[in-house]
Amino acid sequence: PYPSPHRPGQVIDLARQGGCWTVTLNRADKANALTLGMLEELDGIFEQAQADTDLRVLVVTGAGPRVFCAGADLGEARDATSITTNPVWERMSNRLANLPCLTIAALNGTLAGGGFALALACDLRIAVAGANFFYPVLRNGFLPQPSDVRRMTALIGPSRTRLILLAGQKLTANEALDVGLVDRLVPAEGLPNMVADLSNAALNARGETVTAIKRLG
User: Fold this and answer.
1) Which of 9, 20, 27, 111 could form a disulfide with 57 if both were Cys (CB 3.0 to 4.6 A apart)?
2) Count of C-beta atoms within a 10 Å radius of residue 29
3) Is the pTM of this model over 0.85?
4) Per-residue confidence of the chain (217 residues) as pLDDT tens digits?
5) CA of 185: how far to CAs of 144, 154, 178, 214, in Å?
6) How many angstroms separate the CA atoms of 100 and 158, rounded?
7) C-alpha to C-alpha distance for 139 and 164, rounded to whole angstroms
8) Are 106 and 58 in contact (CB under 8 A)?
């Protein structure tokens, strides 16, 4: 089912339905900010996904009506650099990027900071119309993840990447669509239907065909 139901105490939900997995950041009270434990759990889920030969589509989304992911939970550790420089970010996002199935980031709200690691590593990004996009590393005194910079540059070009990372500019959902950071905009209530529409072809294809086409790109 999509979206995943909330279970008390569960901050990462995994729902499996046929050839589709839906991974939900389920920490809406903390803007779905990522702790080290959540990053490790996501990495483990994506490792399982690599081994599932029946998997055709993996969706990453967030709980709540306003925020997909606020990035790293800087309040989790006494030294914030211990989470922002942890190698789990690159390991997790690279594992997601290299999955043999179609991957979709269903952005239920605003995307900030390290949350870009998930969205940029997916094949497709769809967002609700009220979402905003910003990556305030310069203001916070941290470096972005190297793979985030490479993937963002590949999507929207070096100049617009610098607009976000060096000029600290926030993009609206419409601006993100215009520059190619997201592929579709939908009203909030239309997000599940758009996910279903984009998933349909892959769910009805042979796994090796999905993988072969993905590897061509």
Assistant:
1) 20
2) 9
3) yes
4) 344 444 445 699 999 999 999 999 999 999 999 999 999 999 999 999 999 999 999 999 999 999 999 999 988 756 667 788 899 999 999 999 999 999 999 999 999 999 999 999 999 999 999 999 999 999 888 899 999 999 999 999 999 999 999 999 999 999 999 999 999 999 999 999 999 999 999 999 999 999 999 999 8
5) 26, 20, 10, 23
6) 28
7) 11
8) no
CA dihedral 173, 179, 180, 181 (to 10 degrees): -50
The span from the CA of 120 to the CA of 185, in Å, is 16
- The closest of 126, 119, 133 to 169, measured between CA atoms, is 133
C-beta separation of 124 from 155 below 8 A: no
What's the one-letter identity of residue 42? L
Question: Rounded to whole angstroms, how far apart are CA atoms 68 and 109?
Answer: 5
Tokens of 65: 């009506």
80 vs 84: CA distance, rounded Å = 7
